[in-house]
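I have been asked to look over a protein record a colleague put together. What it holds is a sequence and that sequence's fold in token form. Please read both lines and tell me whether the tokens look consistent with the sequence. I do not need a full report, just your reasoning and any doubts. This is what I was given:
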Amino acid sequence: MSLIESIGRLQKDDPTPLYLQLQKGLRNAIENRLVKAEAAIPTERDLAEEFDVSRITVRKAVDGLVSDGLLSRRRGAGTFVVAPRVEKSFSRLTSFSEDMVSRGRRPHSVWVSKTEGAVTPEEALSLGLSPGTSVHRFHRIRYADDLPMALEYSTIPGYCLTSPDAVGASLYEALEAAGHLPVRALQRLRAVNFTAEQAELLHVARGDAGLFIERRGFLVDGRAAEYTQSYYRGDAYDLVAELSSR
């Protein structure tokens, strides 16, 4: 469906300036997801021809949406719809899927690998496990709707799950079903720049800014249940922490 079919023709006998009419129509198309996040909109020339207005009118309409953060210009590539940012609260222990559903997004994952093996020295130190202990490893790309949001690498002690295949769509649902859902966690975060491999998987440019979050989850009895390293897109995530003076 073309934009003019989604928005309708501009009313030239309306006292509202044409650029504001076009801007409102584009805004509604973006907010109602008629144009997908990360999708390119037509060029100024194409929009001017489609809506029978000048390129100056189109530029003014687009400039307003760029200022409002709904569109972004990428040099040499075009103008793209900005993905809605997601707020991640540090005050509650929640899964990626829970975070996305609570914000009206559709979470899903593409599995890169599910494996089983002996704990590495780094994993043993983070999880408090003895050398040779069996662990399950999960590597996946996390999506919100059709937008890749994060790369996730999780290590789970063997005593928490019977096998890697016990995990379906949600790791936390599998841990809860096994009676080993973490009840508290320690999280550490820092800024990173994506490598070429990470950038390709997340559909961003090499060197773009991202957020690295390391999480260690613990059971009621104090044993470790999860060691997860996640790389989040910096252009799509806001981290929020509620602070108190007491």
Notes: The two ends are 55 Å apart (CA to CA).
